[in-house]
Amino acid sequence: MYGIDILYTEHDHVVRFTNYLRKLCGEILMGEKPDKDTWLKCVDFIRVYADDHHHGKEEEILFTVMLEKLGSVAHKMINTGMLVEHNLARYHTQSLEEAVNALSEEPTLEEKLNLITHALSYVDLLQRHAHKENNVLFPFAARSLSPEDLEKVNEASKTFEEEGAKKGIGKYVDWLMEVYPDAVSEH
Ligand SMILES: [Fe+2]
Ligand SMILES: [Fe+2]
Predict the structure, then answer these.
(1) Is 40 within 8 Å of 100 (Cβ atoms)?
(2) Which ligand minimizes its atom distance to the CA of 89?
(3) Total domain count for the chain?
């Protein structure tokens, strides 16, 4: 099940990334000055890898097929659950980006608090979100979609990945492994 398996793998990366964000927040609490370039790279990872690439693939492919084929249970889980959380993640990302851009040369307590607040809100949301998809939504899709529909998901996911590779999506995972090599996987 290539199309669903790749989403599990991406969750490993997203959860690894959120653990890295927690580490950066811990360093600030221990007195380290936040490095603006590092935080800008984090915002870029969220926007390009976690949102455009990962949430984009879920929304365009798997969720679309589930909404078409799996009736009211899928509608409830996706429309009032997963999509609401994707949008909430976008709100936290926007707020985090504003907090990063507002960092001055010698960040004030207020500026650091804004950074930590929005970073940890994103971390908590994404960890719970990935856990729900891994343990409820993806298993439901895998056992409920027909083999033909799963094949459609696989094919569309392959095309999506090829497009992502052309745009250089691999560099985000390479960067993550470099800055945070020791994370534990979520599922
Ligand atoms: Fe999701
Ligand atoms: Fe996801």
Answers:
(1) yes
(2) 1
(3) 1
Neighbours of ion ligand 2 (CB under 5 A): 133
pLDDT string in tens for the chain (187-residue length): 799 999 999 999 999 999 999 999 999 999 999 999 999 999 999 999 999 999 999 999 999 999 999 999 999 999 999 999 999 999 999 999 999 999 999 999 999 999 999 999 999 999 999 999 999 999 999 999 999 999 999 999 999 999 999 999 999 999 999 999 975 655 4
Secondary structure (3-state) at 187 = coil
**Is residue 123 a contact partner of residue 22, using CB atoms and an 8 Å limit?**
yes
Domain that holds residue 40: 2-179
Residue 10 CA to ligand 2 center (angstroms) comes to 7
Inside any domain, residue 185:
no
Question: Could you say which ligand is closest to the alpha carbon of residue 186?
Answer: 2
- The two three-digit tokens of residue 110, written as one number: 């207020």
Residue 130 resides in a domain: yes
